[in-house]
Amino acid sequence: MDYMDNIRNKLALLPDLPGCYLMKNQEGTIIYVGKAKVLKNRVRSYFTGSHNGKTQRLVANIVDFEYIVTSSNMEALILECNLIKKHMPRYNVLLKDDKTFPYLKITNEAHPRLEVTRRVLKDKAKYFGPYPNSYAAQQTKKLLDRMYPLRKCGVMPKEVCLYYHMGQCLAPCEKEVPKSAYEEIIQNISSFLGGGHDAVKKDLQKKMQEAAEELYFERAKELRDQIQHIDAVMEKQKINTADTKDRDVFGYAVDKGWMCVQILYMRQGKMIQRHSSAFPFYGEAYGDFMSYVTQYYSDNPALPQEILLPDMASAGMLPPEGGGVSGQESGVQAAGVMPSGQALMAALGAEDESEAGEQTGETGIAGEGLAGAPAAADEAVQGQTEQEAAAEGTVDAAGGAAALQEWLGIKVLVPQRGLKKQMVGMACQNSRVALNEKFRLIERDEERTSGAASSLGQSLGLDSLNRIEAFDNSNIQGANPVSAMVVFIDGKPARKEYRKYKVRTVQGPDDYETMREVIRRRYERVLKENLPQPDLIVVDGGKGQISSAIDILQNELGLFIPVCGLVKDDKHRTAQLLVGDSAEPVSLARDSQEFYLLQRIQDEVHRFAITFHREQRGKSMVTSKLDSIPGIGDKRRKLLLKHFGSLKKIKEASIEDFKVLSIGEKLAGQILEALNDEEPSE
């Protein structure tokens, strides 16, 4: 093929230099962006050898590529990030939530404010964060608002507000506030968010005790509540370290074409939160992981003091079924703690690493060996891994960390032993647990949906049960009769195929005739428009409803579709499944997935029918009073309701009030007379 000849010619000309490559599809759209230390090795690897399913899908769509040479691996790292953001390639890991991380901000104004923001600007304001979610940031702001009286208003008011009377604002709108007062508050907030909340807590406890001794119990209660808020917001850490550094600890795991990245946020030596992202990936695992990290920091100028990354051997595939850790250890891991969690907790506060021994050269790689093994042997293993990675043209841990450290200007480590290695291990373990949980949820969902539908079909003697259509009728003593149909495909609701029916021919509360009309209308249309036929029809009710549906299907339409009915107990819960014209009961265990599926179907169709009935009933209550008046059509009725707001206000209006709607005195009088003759509704 022409495009393959073109690719072969380009591959032969690839340089032995670092850079970025851009893969294109038949339309010329960039579908993947990658980086490499050696472009020749990395790009060639896509077109030689075997790949997993997802990489094969990527390669199958490549008809051309181009590349950009850079002078260093660090430049390639930054360029890759910029190209991904510009082109949003289909097969790249895209950090779509890179703007969702909130920060706390003290504005740089004459009268500063504390606010939550998602944009970090170079505006000389003070930023704290990022926080893993908006709730954590808002809770922290709420606590600080109670403790430190910065102004809350966006625009300065003309008089003092409630916050001043509550002691939460200095009222700069009316009083002169010295700059020193703001400096002291800002210093206190910075100290608090930087780990000084323990001193604040002790001070509050002292004041609470003094207030209680002086019998100021309301003040003591306020102080107690503030202490509790500090405990709730600031003391949710899971582990501590002896130092007080701010760290971001990364870990990742891959399986079945998916990657999960976990970030553990350590602030002032305490792990306060974590962030998890799971997404499909198409390239080389460690390269896509480093791409995620680069994108994360590209728009995040509030950097920690230190970043910890896993090496290429720390993450990987999930252990096979039945292998790996024991059941007891698995339970510990599910809570987010490593199998060596007790050893980790015992080691906390006793870190014996020196700053000088943390790095080797300028690579950002921790110079620590594996615990219990000679450091030299560990370095040999690590060096071999990196050499293999370089030979294949893939990203290695040392090069990735070095480039990231050079770019960000902060310490980036890939620890090999000790507490930091265990922190990274915890992040990787959490990633494995999260991926495992995701796959288990998918399996559970399949068991509850397609699996339950298949088992139900077997119980009913059906070869397949992919499509189920269920009907329910709703009316109040025959008024506003409606019916509704829901569709379940492979045990899951297909909401785009739901249908509503206004009952046309039935007078009064006749459930059987209503069922006959709706079944006739539905399946006449199915035959006329050649729509897919269901494998099973479910009606809400017993023998009468089933017989009505079967009569229409078989005797009028010539369709022989199985029909079953769901009977409810005196508490309006699904109790029994009846099948066929003879309404024979089918025995299903109340705790089986098949029974749960029937419950979901019955609840869904009932909800859908009731909602539609309420809509119709609400409309009829309005139209019955206005539409019966000569000279009032749909357009004028809507105009009246929009102008006055309700029937009650129309009744209370004077004839003069109707003139603005171009309604004359005669018609206005008829409207008021007709409405006031109606009995008031309860």
What does this structure look like?
With 682 residues, this protein is α+β, with helices and mostly antiparallel strands. The chain has helices spanning 2-12, 39-45, 53-60, 73-87, 134-147, 162-165, 179-213, 217-234, 285-298, 327-334, 341-347, 375-392, 397-408, 418-448, 450-459, 511-528, 543-556, 593-626, 634-644, 647-652, 665-677, and strands at residues 19-24, 30-36, 64-69, 103-106, 114-117, 126-128, 247-255, 258-267, 270-280, 306-308, 411-413, 467-476, 479-489, 492-493, 499-502, 536-540, 563-568, 574-579, 584-586. The strands form four sheets. Strands 12, 13, 14, 15, 16, 17, 18 and 19 form an eight-stranded mixed β-sheet that branches. Helix 14 (418-448) runs parallel beside helix 15. The longest helix is centred in the first third of the chain and has 35 residues, at 179-213. The protein is extended, with a radius of gyration of 34 Å. The model is unreliable at 235-239, 317-384 and 678-682 (pLDDT under 50).
Rounded to the nearest angstrom, the radius of gyration is: 34 Å
Biggest beta sheet summary? 8 strands, mixed
Kindly state the number of beta strands: 19
Low-confidence stretches: 235-239, 317-384, 678-682
Give the count of helical stretches: 21
Distance between the termini: 79 Å
Secondary structure category:
alpha+beta
Shape: extended
Portion of residues within helices? 40-55%
